[in-house]
Specification:
The chain has 192 residues and is an alpha+beta fold. The chain has helices at 18-30, 79-91, 136-169, 173-191; strands at residues 4-16, 34-39, 45-50, 56-64, 67-76, 95-102, 105-112, 115-123, 126-132. The chain folds into 2 domains: 4-133; 137-191. Helix content is 41%, strand content 40%. It has a 9-stranded antiparallel β-sheet, with helices on one face. Helix 3 packs antiparallel against helix 4 (173-191). The longest helix is centred in the last third of the chain and has 34 residues, at 136-169.
Length: 192
């Protein structure tokens, strides 16, 4: 198995409640990767982690509307720290683009709501999709809804045909025209 050189968390976003922030800090503290937590004037916090001896990584969490929000990038080489950050993104339903860097290629993981939704292998200029989450249930629901609209469109066309025939045979053209107007408006909405 290829040895990973580093892991970059790019475009990472974590939104934590106060309880989740405490849990986040304790996760890193339990594994002896936490150096310090700085509480800033506005209530924001800076979490300083130890990557390799002498290498510190600061994660700045801004206090926004009662939550701690981290938006940014960081690079880890310590496998334990990489694993903890992966667990944090997953557990706290974060989003991120993670570059796992190996000699000669990079694996790019896309996280949304804490889950991997796409994995891409990058070798130079070549990209190869390894995994992509398919929302099969959502796709089927959308397909069902769209066919439901198509059925309704077909029924409206049948009603329009009926009322046009009726209009040709009837003397009450005003009432029929009003009904045709309503049907055509409904048809316009569905076809849009």
């Amino acid at each position: 198995m290829a040895q990973r050189l580093a892991t970059e968390y790019v475009k990472t976003c974590l939104e934590l409640t106060e309880a989740q922030m405490s849990k986040f800090i304790s996760m890193f503290h339990e594994h002896q990767n936490l150096l310090q937590v700085k509480v800033l004037d506005n209530g924001s916090q800076e979490v300083v982690l130890m990557d390799r001896p002498g290498d510190q990584i600061a994660l700045s969490f801004e206090r926004i509307m009662g939550k701690y929000v981290f938006e940014g990038s960081c690079r880890f080489t310590n496998p334990n720290l990489v694993n903890l950050m992966r667990k944090a993104v997953s557990e706290f339903k974060g989003s991120a683009i993670v570059n796992r860097i190996y000699i000669g290629y990079t694996m790019v993981y896309h996280y949304a709501s804490g889950s991997v939704v796409k994995i891409v292998e990058m070798k130079g200029d070549l990209e190869k999709i390894i995994y992509e989450h398919k929302d099969t249930v959502g796709d089927l629901e959308r397909m069902y809804r769209s066919s439901e609209a198509e059925c309704e469109i077909q029924k409206i066309w049948q009603e329009i045909d009926y009322f046009l025939d009726l209009r040709n045979r009837s003397g009450e053209k005003a009432a029929i025209d009003e009904h045709l107007k309503m049907l055509s408006q409904r048809l316009f909405v569905l076809e849009a």
